[in-house]
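Course assignment 3, question 2. Fill in each field.
Student: A.L.
Task: Predict the tertiary structure for the chain below.
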Amino acid sequence: MEIKPKISAFIDGILSEMKIAIDSKNIEKVNILNYLLSQAQILSKNLVEIENRLIYLEGEINNIDTRKDKSIPQNINNSDGLEVNLSDNADATIARANAKAKRKQFLDLLKKEGTILEQYKGVVYKNPKTDGLVGIAFSSNNGGSWFLGLPDYKYEVVVLLCKNINTDAIVFPKDFYLKISDLMSRSRGHVKFNLHSSSGKYILYSKKGNLPVNDYLNNFNAFK
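Answer field:
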């Protein structure tokens, strides 16, 4: 079975299951299905990008002999009009898609808690209730460690989304972040966070030693 109809069939299956879950008022199942749906939609969009890149590359083959510029092309534009580096590998594309999906999942959950954030710049958002900045970082799991970074701004709240942690987020409120901010490493205008898990405990590395952060799991009170 070709991948495109397989993805479409998978999405149709999720929508059917979601209707049943909604009718039975199984909210937990609806949330899981909604996340799976977002992942499938990301795959579908990425497939379109792959098709566009393939068309571009096929055109380059046909135009090699007639092109005046013989330099090797480094970038093309994707369907959103943004420049894409042809050297980007599949892992990087998947990582960006995972980060985007995880961030959207958190924003949707936060909205249910009564807080709607506005886009400020990239992974930085603004809380319209307070005008404070909220940084939302994401990292994949690197053997029980997570390496995250944010632009070095004065944040009201810092959110660390760590893949495979059995919770939605580690959320630092303003008072805690002010205490630890100078203890974090920095590079090229970004503040770095290095997390590690051991026996169910989450540790944030700092210049003055390890800081336990389990108290900040799903800490939505930071937004109140």
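Instructor remarks: The mean pLDDT is 80. DSSP finds four helices and twelve strands in the chain.
Grade: pending
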